[in-house]
């Protein structure tokens, strides 16, 4: 059975990733983020967005210049020293804010700010 892949608008990608629309357009223009043009409209395939995000995360982690903007559930599990299943449960119940870029367990992305808020809220409760 074929799964339909989603096409995102620049605005949708901006909202999902937490990067300005102009920065998303810049990434498309410099060919860092593949896109499809239909007339004047620009669309980004779900798979291309995932590849971009994974590359973006691993590049920043390798260089060490800047903390990642988005974490995978697996990265958050290592940071918090929890199982990935626990992280998925936190995401599904809304206690940890994140979003899915596609269907599947490893498709969650957690903005750095959400992780910081979660850690802050947990440390306040234990004090």
Feature tags:
single chain, 127 residues, alpha+beta, Multidrug-efflux Transporter Regulator, Chain: A, Domain 2, 2 domains, three-stranded antiparallel beta sheet, 6 helices, 54% helix, 15% strand
What does this structure look like?
The chain is an alpha+beta fold and about 130 residues long. The chain has 2 domains: about 1-65, Multidrug-efflux Transporter Regulator, Chain: A, Domain 2; about 70-125, Multidrug-efflux Transporter Regulator, Chain: A, Domain 2 (Orthogonal Bundle). Helices cover about 55% and strands about 15% of the residues. The protein has 6 helices and 6 strands. It has helices spanning about 10-15, 20-30, 45-65, 75-80, 85-95, 110-125, and strands at about 5-10, 35-40, 40-45, 70, 100, 110. The strands form 2 sheets. Strands 1-3-2 form a 3-stranded antiparallel β-sheet. Strand 5 and strand 6 (about 110) form a beta hairpin. Helix 1 crosses helix 2. It is elongated. The termini are far apart. The model has no long low-confidence stretch (mean pLDDT about 80).
Net shape: elongated
Question: Fraction of residues in helices?
Answer: 40-55%
| Percent of sequence in beta strands | 5-15%
Top CATH class of the largest domain: Mainly Alpha
Radius of gyration: 16 Å
- Helices and strands, in order, run as EHHEEHEHHEEH
Count of distinct strands? 6
Number of domains: 2
Tally of helical runs? 6
Distance between the termini: 51 Å
Low-confidence stretches: none
Tell me the major beta sheet. Answer: 3 strands, antiparallel
The residue-averaged pLDDT reads 80
CATH topology of the largest domain: Multidrug-efflux Transporter Regulator, Chain: A, Domain 2
Strand order of the largest sheet: 1-3-2
Structural class: alpha+beta
Q: Please identify, by name, the CATH architecture of the largest domain.
A: Orthogonal Bundle
